[in-house]
Design a protein that fits this description.
The protein is α/β, with parallel strands linked by helices. 39% of the residues lie in helices and 18% in strands. It is globular, with a radius of gyration of 16 Å. Bound molecules: D-malate.
């Protein structure tokens, strides 16, 4: 069996993920936001690579059922109804709606994972349920890819740490497991960092969110197993 980690989507070539089981991780904040929105009754999330693409995708959908959401530099995009805070994804705001979401790193990573099968969305917020699903994919397929969104084309500690915790959770009892170098580094990170809170709060993303007065989102994202939903991305929709 084999697990490959990518710390950013930059190392991917077209077709690299076709037909492979993939977990996309952007803990601060896109994957936490997607999980929360679906747990609170959103019908689907459509990830967009850019704000412009989000507007175009939304214009093809029925106005009543669609909500534009997303951030630039952590703040809500002008003219959009919601930002990228998981705390905004309340049942009242997203229940029954299709959210078209554009974020700096997370939604481009999701778009890059297209062609994977399945493409799951993971974070501490759904960690236990995610690990069970990912383990089943590893057993069925014999391999798994963890694609971290990273931050501004660089490594992001909260995503790498989550990848390491996920590998440790899914590899129990597996006799022979091959890992790429990034996967080995992700596991090593879990020896250096003790808790979700330590991983998230020490991150550059957390600093940027605190500067934008959004430190509460970091605390929200650091609490594991809030939800049991494991979002799955297929045909350009996350459900
Ligand atoms: C992203 O996709 O880049 C993030 O989720 C950034 C953020 O929400 O602050």
């Amino acid at each position: 069996m084999r697990i490959d980690v990518f710390f950013t989507p930059l190392g991917l070539n077209p077709g690299d993920l076709t037909g492979r089981g993939v977990v996309v991780v952007d803990v601060l904040r896109a994957s936490t936001t997607v999980i929360t929105a679906l747990a609170n009754g959103a019908k689907a999330i459509i990830p967009a690579a850019t704000a412009e693409e989000a507007v175009r995708l939304a214009s093809n959908l029925e106005k009543d059922g669609v909500v534009l959401a997303g951030e630039r530099k952590s703040l809500k995009i002008e003219g959009f109804a919601l930002g990228n805070s998981p705390r905004e994804m309340t049942a009242a705001a997203v229940g029954g709606k299709t959210i078209v979401l554009a974020t700096t790193n997370g939604t481009p990573a999701l778009v890059a994972a297209q062609g994977g099968d399945p493409v799951l969305v993971g974070a501490p917020a759904n960690f236990r349920a995610l690990a069970a699903r990912a383990r089943a994919v590893l057993e069925q397929r014999g391999e798994l890819v963890v694609l971290c969104a990273g931050r501004d084309k660089q490594f992001a500690v909260e995503d790498g740490y989550t990848a390491g915790r996920l590998i440790k959770a899914v590899r129990r009892g597996v006799k022979r497991l091959e890992l790429n170098d990034a996967a080995r580094a992700a596991i090593a990170l879990t020896d250096a960092v003790a808790t979700w809170t330590e991983a998230l709060e020490g991150s550059e993303a957390a600093r940027q969110l605190a500067e934008a007065d959004l430190a509460e989102d970091v605390r929200f994202a650091a609490k594991p197993d809030r939800f049991t939903v494991v979002p799955s991305y297929a045909d350009r929709r996350i459900t």
